Amino acid sequence: MSGASFFGDMLQTITERGRQLLALAPFGGDAPRPSLEQLCERLLGGNGEASGMALASLILERWRSLDGPEQAAFMTMLLERFGADESRLDAAIDAHRAKPSADTVRALHAAAEPRRQEIIRRLNLAPEGVGQLVRMREALLRMLPERPELAAVDADFAHLFGSWFNRGFLVLKPVDWATPANVLEKIIRYEAVHEIKDWDELRRRVQPVDRRCFAFFHPRLPDEPLIFVEVALTTSIAATISDVLDEDRAQIRAEDATTAVFYSISNCQEGLRGVSFGNFLIKQVVADLRRDLPKLSTFVTLSPMPGFAAWLARQRAAERPDLLDPAERAQLAPLDDPAWDRNPDAVEELQPALCRAAATYLLRARNPAGLAADPVARFHLGNGARLERINFLGDRSPRGLRQAHGMMVNYLYDLSDIEKNHEAFIGRGEVIASPAVQRLAPTTRASQPRSVRPEHAA
Amino acid sequence: MSGASFFGDMLQTITERGRQLLALAPFGGDAPRPSLEQLCERLLGGNGEASGMALASLILERWRSLDGPEQAAFMTMLLERFGADESRLDAAIDAHRAKPSADTVRALHAAAEPRRQEIIRRLNLAPEGVGQLVRMREALLRMLPERPELAAVDADFAHLFGSWFNRGFLVLKPVDWATPANVLEKIIRYEAVHEIKDWDELRRRVQPVDRRCFAFFHPRLPDEPLIFVEVALTTSIAATISDVLDEDRAQIRAEDATTAVFYSISNCQEGLRGVSFGNFLIKQVVADLRRDLPKLSTFVTLSPMPGFAAWLARQRAAERPDLLDPAERAQLAPLDDPAWDRNPDAVEELQPALCRAAATYLLRARNPAGLAADPVARFHLGNGARLERINFLGDRSPRGLRQAHGMMVNYLYDLSDIEKNHEAFIGRGEVIASPAVQRLAPTTRASQPRSVRPEHAA
Amino acid sequence: MSGASFFGDMLQTITERGRQLLALAPFGGDAPRPSLEQLCERLLGGNGEASGMALASLILERWRSLDGPEQAAFMTMLLERFGADESRLDAAIDAHRAKPSADTVRALHAAAEPRRQEIIRRLNLAPEGVGQLVRMREALLRMLPERPELAAVDADFAHLFGSWFNRGFLVLKPVDWATPANVLEKIIRYEAVHEIKDWDELRRRVQPVDRRCFAFFHPRLPDEPLIFVEVALTTSIAATISDVLDEDRAQIRAEDATTAVFYSISNCQEGLRGVSFGNFLIKQVVADLRRDLPKLSTFVTLSPMPGFAAWLARQRAAERPDLLDPAERAQLAPLDDPAWDRNPDAVEELQPALCRAAATYLLRARNPAGLAADPVARFHLGNGARLERINFLGDRSPRGLRQAHGMMVNYLYDLSDIEKNHEAFIGRGEVIASPAVQRLAPTTRASQPRSVRPEHAA
Amino acid sequence: MSGASFFGDMLQTITERGRQLLALAPFGGDAPRPSLEQLCERLLGGNGEASGMALASLILERWRSLDGPEQAAFMTMLLERFGADESRLDAAIDAHRAKPSADTVRALHAAAEPRRQEIIRRLNLAPEGVGQLVRMREALLRMLPERPELAAVDADFAHLFGSWFNRGFLVLKPVDWATPANVLEKIIRYEAVHEIKDWDELRRRVQPVDRRCFAFFHPRLPDEPLIFVEVALTTSIAATISDVLDEDRAQIRAEDATTAVFYSISNCQEGLRGVSFGNFLIKQVVADLRRDLPKLSTFVTLSPMPGFAAWLARQRAAERPDLLDPAERAQLAPLDDPAWDRNPDAVEELQPALCRAAATYLLRARNPAGLAADPVARFHLGNGARLERINFLGDRSPRGLRQAHGMMVNYLYDLSDIEKNHEAFIGRGEVIASPAVQRLAPTTRASQPRSVRPEHAA
To answer: Which parts of the sequence belong to the Malonyl-CoA decarboxylase C-terminal domain (chains A, B, C, D) (predicted)?
Structure first.
């Protein structure tokens, strides 16, 4: 509160003066109100330095009052009017071609930087600028499908955010029942994997001594978790999500836990899409838990397989499926009953077939780029985890059944193998899996993936 | 401490594993120790992602153990081996020339970015990476005079620091007698204008209710002030530094103060040279003080004139000085007595002449770029302050006498005029001064400066 | 968490050693388990000092495992075995009677102190001892109706708590949406005046800029509010609770508020009954709000009249009511319809009569001790507030209708009159009321109260 | 600062109103200024409740302006005017004698409580009251030698402080180089055992990783350490203070330490004399260090023997010393040379004799009460430590030579024996010592001490 009123005060002071001189007065006054483009030019101009904060605040204030089409027009203006200076760029290219050197490269790099990058940096001068810029990109991302040309503007945001939200600037904090409510409500809102219905359920996830939650924060966005992970401390590897979330489960003492189950990882800020935190988060939480609870020896996820059902549907529908033989296909027929999971016979019949199909999917299915087809698998395998176990009916929720016929996966993080697994996956395309999983899908590999980097977590 | 041990733990965990695989083991082992260049390549490589923090820590650890020539060699390696990829850059230029578009510019910009920028970003992954990178640039800046070609490397550090230390990420904090000692000792060490001899003197500057000190901090460098300003709360505009620093001065209640005198501004981090904070610091402190002490109405500096004595010596030595007429030159003769300030006759004689000369220097002397010759004047005038008063024998310290024959200056920050003054100075080269100062040097302007931006504070 | 594990560790260390020596081992071992009485003796004994913390923890641990009758037996033991040492007391009386002096009084005072007071002090040595002692007294208070003899033990708790929870040791903190959830859930739980149904309603009371909440905390009970007050910032004196709590009310800017309405004050710790905080809380919140929002000029409550309906029922039922004349009695007849508040005719008819009756009740009804009959009135008038306004149908909730036929009261805190009003009420029994309220019940005072102190807030 | 201005504001608000009504206006006004006695009566009176904080502040403000004799007069007034109410006390005695019960004891206890105890509690209402009360008792303690009758007043302060500064309310904090300067300067000031000359020496004691310092704080006195202990982490039991304090000593990594040497314990608040903290401090620091550094296995002091030289002088001067035989006396003759410690022959000759004498002193010398003669020995033995080793020339400072001929002692805290040792010392008067120390003074015990509690730490 004090901080807010402070900034308010300063803004009142500085902005009003700046507005008077610059004829920015929002109401009244003879001078025509300057356009956003003019304001952006002033923000960039050496001339405006004394009122940089005032200008930045004013532009952001105006931005917030725009409707959707106007915001898109603002972005188009950034694209068209605040790209690189073409004549300067041409000159830099000529100079470089004439006699290349570190200096000509530097000049070229500077000349090729779109002017809007500096606009974004200067908008950050405004109080709470960084949070507003994240929300601005959120809006921009929503425009992209309709206006793909704005990808160039998005690239500038992404570039700066990658630098600003570098892991070196982030802070890991435990989230528990003593965490401020305005942070906790965001945990409720952003939980993307296993919905949190209300405050009571939230409390069951963060208050018990055998439940933990950790989030990364940026120091200038103290109320905004960037990504968080929920952890269950247990004495064995959880096979189903209800083992973890059941209200009536038996609670254990944290000191008695041997296993940490990471059962949910959620990104919070759509505006930071493409800035990867998950890798660092998991590893830092592993290190943190090991230090506090030396008896913990197993670190494992309980993860969804979001692409499994769609892939399996395609295999079953294909005339000549590459990864499903006719016998397997036949065994999967009970899936056509939408209520199969409540039919004991169907369940019994499907168990071996679904487990085999899931193993095949994870070990051999590839996306067009030649990568593991499942995005969650790509994330954890790329981090160096091992595909440890496939769990039949691990998630009986409607979403779990719809997306993956209820299957869940454990990925194991063994710090002694992380680097080796990572190299194998990224360098040679191998999916490192436990013997049990390998036995489920013993045939020769159908396709060999190429070296790649994982794209996104889930 | 807890943070440190946490990171230590994590590093132990992750680094050791990473080292084993990567054959980085510092002692023993059969594999040859990889070179720093190899480590940097691995840090950049997609392959090393799982061990990015370990690699970054290892590189920084090695860097700290290098001697001066080895550090210079490291920088030269960054220059020569981690510039832009030339063939990629050539291709990007060709593509742009063939059919220019926002996309070809973006590709060009990316291709022209030296690879060492990404190395610097990834080194920031290491615990306390940002502080070590600042110190790394400090070392680099010391190399530059001997190795001007490293300016290209320095430009990359400067570019990233400008973005990371954007004012939007900084926090203003009061520095007082309840501030941690490890911060206060840095105030002692970094005070660049009026030396702080010991802890007792420090206490006199930060503890009394009519003395204030404020600093900017970066959230990830909580023990390192970036820049600080010392303020005296008074009932009139201080004319001499001893008015401010005298041990026996009469203390007043903060609520009774009408005037805030900014008598010292010091940058703390040589490694952040060129990242400008001073402008924002002064304005935010003005806003802060106004809020807390509504009776404060005058905000003024008590500043040195570091270039005055040298300029005056040149004028006096010149055959045909451009800004000193023969009568004035004659009046300044007593300056040749090095102890003139203790000779009442000399003092009386010199007062009018030195005041006139000082006014001339501030109003009309220009540096080769056509700017105000005095760097402190450039800073405050560029911020929109007004040259308010010239103070004879304001600083009788040896340094004050040597640099400026004891003269000091008050610059006035009047928020209603800041923008106008700034425009006048930057846009039209006018030095805005009080009538009293203008009267001291009434002749027509000798030279017209061009529009410029101030370079550095003092 | 760190604190907890630290204490746990220390306890493990110290308690285990202590237990071994003292043969306190909870499981196994040959020695018979010492009784709680023996443990208390040891706690008092000089002999046990080295293990004071261990003993205190052990006693509290045992206490928590007792069932109700056992806890009552423990209290009876404190009463019977740990009173004053009678022979020592007799000797002290004799010495005092022989030759009274400051020293004999001191000896008498010491001898008359029940030994259980020192037990309570030493139980406070245990980690989190103070919180457990508060809960211990809570249990004791529940026993009192059945075991009035334990009042002597309760007096010892009350005496020490009065000293420990002295206002000088308390900290006022704002409670808002950035307050930790474990504190906020206590606000929900302890709200005694206008129930908070869920987290959404809580948020409406603490998050909007024109709603405030403040609580007193003891530094050693950081998660436990002791008492809290809810405040609405408005532009006029609220007359009904729905003005304040309505979900769809128009929100105002805090800076525009002229009036602070204290609409709910709740004590949180039954175990601290009799330790009065409310007086200090209101005055400190008034001071705090005045400082932050200088435009606030009116500080007023919106209070219930919890005893009104019962009093009025007695008056209406009495053969010869002292404060209700027959005409008034007749006008109140529509009250017999339990749904009168939804009947416009009844409402119109009752308004003047109920307002007159309420004014009579507040101005003239006395309890047996000669004090204002209404406990809330006693609290605010005793604090120096003025009875400002009576609000017809200010609270249409079932409880409001049941307790006070929906009437509410505004008490005004005018700092310039607080002391005068307080003196008038406490010293001379006068109820200071606004002219408007006085006009409602103009007859001569029926009874003159005697000087008193208010007992409890509401 | 914010807190201060807040309280200032509130006081301004409340105090001024209170003063007006109570005719307390410090300047001007017709009413005569009330005496401190009148103010104290009002503070006690139910009548003054609304202005309790104002009155308390006013009394404390007046107190601060009193000179020494006036302060003594104030204390005498508390003694004479604010003792117990004698007629009430007499009545309570009569009632008790007539029919004793828990209730008559309770009434007696209440009646025997001097009214000044309630005054002290109410003075605590003032902002920063508790700190001022501690300083008030400091002044009172200085008066006692001249005015022994004030001991009764002192007893009231001591009684309340014992309750308020109960260990359960205190917080242990590490003191290091990141501690606020206003706390650190108090460490410099209060260090009572081995003087800290300046900030550089302070830094050497708190900044290195193998040096630690811990202090107890009261939450309402955050800038005032109550007691602190300095610890050296080492790999062996330090025998001399220069081992610990030498500027050029080799620093070790904290993780490599096996031994924690407590080389200085200092009480900070003379006003809290008699409230014992040292026992708890040492044990909590032991627990804290064990948790952070599991390799630590030995916890030992390096302590002075402040009474040794005086005791030895008496023995040597006595005609028939009880604990010094003629042969020993002869061997001690070189002590008569004041510079013996710089004479190698004298040093060699004295070493065995002084070690024997020191062991005799510690094991057998008794004070008049039959306790160990040395106050530091009494403290540590009473805490359950063992007398581990006697160190010849452990402290060559002038004070060390003067007080103890340079001898120092190690007391060992072994948590498994603490309770047993404590019992032996307190219960049976045995000094538990290592075999090595016992061998130094093998004769039969000269005197048998009685059970006692230690009085004060050193």
So the answer is: 168-414
With a threshold of 0.95, tell me whether the complex ipTM lies above it. Answer: no
Residues 216-235 of B with CB under 8 A from D: 223
Place of tokens 């490291």: B74
Stretches where chain C sits below pLDDT 70 are: 1-31, 46-50, 443-458
Strands D211-217 and D259-267, bridge-based pairing: unpaired
Q: What is the mean pLDDT of residues D363-379?
A: 91
Is D303 among the residues known to form the active site?
A: yes
Alpha-carbon distance values, B355 to B312, B336, B372, B449, C200 (Å): 12, 17, 17, 22, 69
pLDDT in tens, D108-128: 999 999 999 999 999 998 888
Q: What is the pLDDT of residues C161-177, one digit of tens each?
A: 999 999 899 999 999 99
Residue D247 dihedral angles phi and psi, to the nearest 5°: -60, -30
CB contact under 8 A, D178 and B180: yes
Instruction: Give me the pLDDT at residue B420, please.
Output: 86
What is the total residue count of chain B?
458
Residue D321 · residue D283 · CB < 8 Å: no
| C15, C94, C97, C108, best to mutate vs chain D, most D CBs in 10 Å | C108
Confidence grade of residue D28 (pLDDT, cut at 50, 70, 90): very low
**Overall fold of domain D3-164:** Butyryl-CoA Dehydrogenase, subunit A; domain 3 (1.20.140)
Paired residues of D410 in beta bridges: D389
What distance in Å separates the CA atoms of residue C116 and residue C44, rounded to the nearest whole number? 9
| Rounded mean pLDDT, D307-321 | 94
Under the banding of pLDDT at 50, 70 and 90, the label for residue B445 is very low
Phi, psi of C326 (to 5 degrees): -55, -40
Residues in C touching D81 (Cβ below 8 Å): none
**Range list of β-strands (E), D175-246:** 211-217, 227-234
Q: Is some CB atom of chain A closer than 8 A to the CB atom of B50? A: yes
Are both C168-301 and C304-454 of the same fold?
A: yes
d(CA C450, CA C430): 9
Strand order in the sheet with D386-391: D171-174, D211-217, D227-234, D259-267, D298-301, D408-412, D386-391
In tens, the pLDDT along D140-198 reads 999 999 999 999 999 999 999 999 999 899 999 999 999 999 999 999 999 988 999 99
pTM: 0.88
The catalytic residue positions of B are 303, 380
Q: How far is CA D134 from CA D163, D181, D270, in A?
A: 13, 22, 8
pLDDT tens figures, D234-244: 999 999 999 99
D107 φ/ψ angles, rounded to the nearest 5 degrees: -65, -40
- Evaluate whether the domain defined by C304-454 bears CATH number 1.10.4200.10: no
For residues A180 and B403, what is the distance between their CA atoms, to the nearest angstrom? 55
Mean pLDDT score, D1-27: 41
CA gap D237, D389 in Å, rounded: 9
Q: Which chain A residue has its CA at the smallest distance from B79's CA? A: A102
Residues A186/A225, Cβ–Cβ less than 8 Å: yes
Region for residue C406 given its phi and psi (left: phi exceeds 0; alpha: psi -120 to 50; beta: otherwise): left
Is B183 within 8 Å of chain A by CB? no
Judging contacts by C-beta atoms under 8 Å, the chain D residues touching residue B1 are: 174, 176
C426–chain D Cβ distance below 8 A for any pair: yes
End-to-end Cα spacing for chain D: 35
Query: Among B167, B139, B117, which residue's Cα sits nearest to residue B269?
Result: B139
Domain boundaries defined on chain D: 3-164, 168-301, 304-454
The verdict on a CB contact (< 8 Å) between D291 and C419 is no
Which amino acid type is present at position B358?
A
Measured between CA atoms, the residue of chain B closest to residue D4 is: B209
Query: According to the model, what pLDDT value does residue C10 have?
Result: 39
